[in-house]
UniProtKB/TrEMBL annotation:
It is found in: Cell membrane. The keyword Nucleotide-binding does not apply. Heme b 1; low-spin binds at residues 62, 349. It comes from the Bacteria. InterPro entries: Cyt_c-like_dom, Cyt_c-like_dom_sf, Cyt_c_oxase-like_su1_dom, Cyt_c_oxase-like_su1_sf, Cyt_C_Oxase_1, Cyt_c_Oxase_su1_BS, Cyt_c_oxidase_cbb3_su1, Cyt_c_oxidase_monohaem-su/FixO. It comes from Belliella pelovolcani. Pathway: Energy metabolism; oxidative phosphorylation. The keyword Transcription regulation does not apply. It is a multi-pass membrane protein. This is cytochrome-c oxidase. Belongs to the heme-copper respiratory oxidase family. Its EC number is 7.1.1.9. Its main location: membrane.
Length: 710
């Protein structure tokens, strides 16, 4: 431009390369653990006979590795490449970029160590204990500071649509993570949630649903708005549609969390809000899908030959399918069929494998040749990867839909005499074993495709020369001036701090309206006079139950359906969970609900069931836990646990921490005597004794009295 001084600067490709390599490496690890977990569901021997590799321990390892390691590193790689180019400036600080990279890898490594050891909060997608939570917050803030710093020193006047989504993702994930992770530490790797029961459930699914929204969805929509037009060499279809898409999506999404808790003890008004906003979400979600697919107008001939566009088209389509299915599942009549079944598993993986996985593959296939200044080593291999992944998703999802319908129909079927046709939960499990086998095969196929990609990426890099930095130039940003007749949103795009504040307000409204009344208005959780705090031994057993990830297969929430009350007993009441930190209502029933299991079986039944499940339940697919009969449990932390819970409002008597161990020993000796009477010899401080104490407590409070205090 005549008379304009151009300023030279460099784009940092090295940080993008490191995040890209981490994406691939952790992706392989996360998918491999997923295949092992899927295999364990039909082959319990795949648990390898030790506490560290059981399904309950490696399932959260799989979800954390795939969400935060695979998808998380992909987000950062995509942002660190696209954002400087959109703003015509390097990221604000290279030091912060590298702190972000190594900090994030350390977090993932700590997750990979602590989760198999059973150091977990058991909160879905937020299982990591409090020291790691603090580290996550610090690293995440460093990432956000780097983005905002780059925005302030940008040379491009307006913020492109991708950056809107990046900013909203940063702000919302920070808010979600901090509020959901509030807890009081007992020790370095043990804490109790600041919330209990119903409130904990609402906060957790406000976080859990929106972790999907603002970690797995909005950042990827930002990436879509940058990489899809680049790959297709076409402008975004509609700027105005992107505005409606963005603001309506971030405002509506935050309200939808309660749809995970339909027909539970959550107050009805919160459930209704969750349903209403979930249904409304179809519009902005499909607005994004339409904007993405119509960007390809005039470029569909390229889709036939370009594997990058193939992956992108299926990714955006999978996004559309998953965001239609989510609101569908939030309808109460559909949720009554789907909840606690494998339908939820299928739904999650359509989004995870199709939307996040395929878009990540597309982005990496596009980035690698660019950064190594070469062509993709093999288009044929990439196309083969595409078909292996697509067929893998089909083999994964379809059997899960069949399994879900089988589960729901069998659980709910009554005979003409008015009795359950399949009263034994195991009858359903046996029927769906072939579906679990097909699901594992689909996962293996998807993983094999990822290995093909690794080979293709390595060969691509070897044939090119890596450009650690790319030089560009642009004029400095002109001083701010008001432009006559400027579209209102264009004015906002020139003000990144103002824009970020508006996005923050938009996401805070829904969460505040749902959560604050549930915590402050006592009538939302009617108390039950007979519900008492857990005894010290029951508390130890509950923590052991949490440590082994039992909530991954068993729910503790009997919904008010005839089929459930006939099978399990009296439906669950909100007041029964006031001392549950965290709540353990569960999301999936691979085994039966346990909320009323207390007193149903003798102590010896639980002992034999844990040591060898098939001895009590022939055909069971639950892994054995024989080490619980011999592992000695250290109860020295009980006084600290009691004091921590007292600070959180649990009404243990003043000074009870001094006598808690005495009460624990008394209850343990009673259970040992019961077991001895059945021919079983165990030590009072063995893990199995504590677990039996907890299981025998479950659901027994409501049997004492059903009188509730308003």
């Amino acid at each position: 431009m005549s008379g304009t001084t151009m300023e030279p600067f460099n784009y940092d490709n090295k940080i993008v390369k490191y995040f890209g390599v981490a994406t691939i490496a952790w992706g392989i690890v996360g998918m491999l653990v997923g295949v092992i977990a899927a295999t364990q569901l039909f082959l319990p021997e795949a648990n390898i006979g030790n506490p560290y590799t059981t399904f309950g321990r490696i399932r959260p390892l799989h979800t954390n590795a795939v969400i935060f390691a695979f998808v998380g590193n992909a987000i950062f790689a995509g942002i660190y490449y696209s954002m400087p180019r959109l703003l015509k400036t390097p990221m604000w600080s290279k030091a912060l970029s590298w702190f972000h990279f190594w900090g994030w890898q350390l977090i993932i490594l700590l997750a990979a160590i602590t989760l198999p050891l059973g150091l977990t909060t058991s909160k879905e997608y937020a299982e990591l204990e409090w020291p790691i939570d603090i580290l996550i917050a610090v690293v995440w803030v460093a990432f956000g500071a780097n983005m905002i710093g780059a925005l302030i020193k940008r040379r491009e006047k307006h913020m492109y649509v991708a950056i809107w989504f990046y900013l909203a993702s940063f702000v919302t994930v920070a808010v979600l993570h901090i509020f959901n992770s509030l807890a009081l530490p007992v020790s370095f790797f043990k804490s109790y949630s600041a919330y209990a029961g119903v409130q904990d459930a609402l906060v957790q699914w406000w976080y859990g649903h929106n972790a999907v929204a603002f970690f797995l969805t909005t950042p990827f929509l930002g990436l879509m708005y940058y990489y899809l037009p680049k790959a297709a060499n076409r402008p975004v279809y509609s700027y105005k549609l992107s505005i409606v898409h963005f603001w309506s999506l971030i405002f509506l999404y935050i309200w939808a969390g309660p749809h995970h808790l339909l027909y539970t003890a959550l107050p009805e008004w919160a459930q209704v809000l969750g349903v209403v906003f979930s249904v409304m979400l179809i519009a902005p979600s499909w607005g994004g899908m339409v904007n993405g697919l119509l960007t390809l107008r005039g470029a569909w001939d390229k889709v036939r030959v370009d594997p990058v566009l193939k992956f992108m088209v299926v990714a955006v389509t999978a996004y559309g399918m998953a965001t239609f299915e989510g609101p569908l599942l939030s309808l109460k009549n559909v949720n009554a069929i789907a909840h606690y079944t494998d339908w939820i598993v299928a739904h999650v993986h359509i989004g995870g494998l199709g939307w996040n996985g395929f878009f990540t593959f597309a982005m990496l296939y596009w980035l690698w040749p660019k950064m190594w200044n070469t062509k993709l080593y093999s288009t044929k291999l990439a196309t083969t990867h595409f078909w292996m992944g697509t067929i893998g998703i089909i083999f994964y999802a379809l059997p899960m839909y069949v399994a879900a319908l089988t589960q729901s129909l069998m659980w709910k079927e009554f005979s003409e005499a008015g009795r359950l046709v399949y009263p034994n939960f195991l009858e359903t499990v046996v029927q769906i074993v072939p579906m679990y086998m097909l699901r594992a095969f689909g996962g293996l196929l998807y993983l094999s495709g990822a290995f093909l990609m690794v080979y293709n990426m390595v060969k691509t890099a070897k044939q090119g020369k890596f450009m650690a930095e790319e030089t560009d130039e642009a004029p400095a940003l002109a001083p701010h001036t008001e432009e006559k007749g400027e579209f209102w949103h264009r004015a906002w795009e020139r003000k990144p701090i103002f824009f970020t504040v508006l996005a923050t307000v938009a996401i805070l409204i829904g969460g505040a309206i749902e959560i604050i009344p549930t915590i402050l208005v006592k009538s939302n959780v009617p108390t039950i006079t007979s519900v008492e705090p857990y005894t010290p031994l029951e508390l130890q057993g509950r923590d052991l139950y949490i440590s082994h990830g039992c909530v991954g297969c068993h729910s503790q929430m009997i919904r008010p359906f005839r089929s459930e009350t006939e099978r399990y007993g009296e439906y669950s009441k909100a007041g029964e969970f006031v001392y549950d930190r965290p709540f353990l209502w569960g999301s999936k029933r691979t085994g039966p609900d346990l909320h009323r299991v207390g007193g149903k079986y003798p102590d010896s039944w639980h002992y034999h069931h844990m040591v060898d499940p098939t001895s009590m339940s022939p055909g069971s697919l639950m892994p054995p836990y024989p080490w619980m009969a011999t592992n000695i449990m250290d109860h020295s932390d009980i006084p600290a646990k009691i004091r921590t819970l007292q600070k959180l409002g649990v009404p243990y008597p003043e000074g009870y921490d001094a006598q808690a161990n005495e009460d624990l020993d008394f209850q343990a000796n009673k259970i040992v005597a019961n077991l001895k009477g059945s021919g079983v010899d165990v030590l009072p401080n063995s893990e199995i004794v504590a677990l039996i104490a907890y299981l025998q407590r479950l659901g027994t409070d409501i049997k004492k009295t059903t009188a509730a205090n308003p």
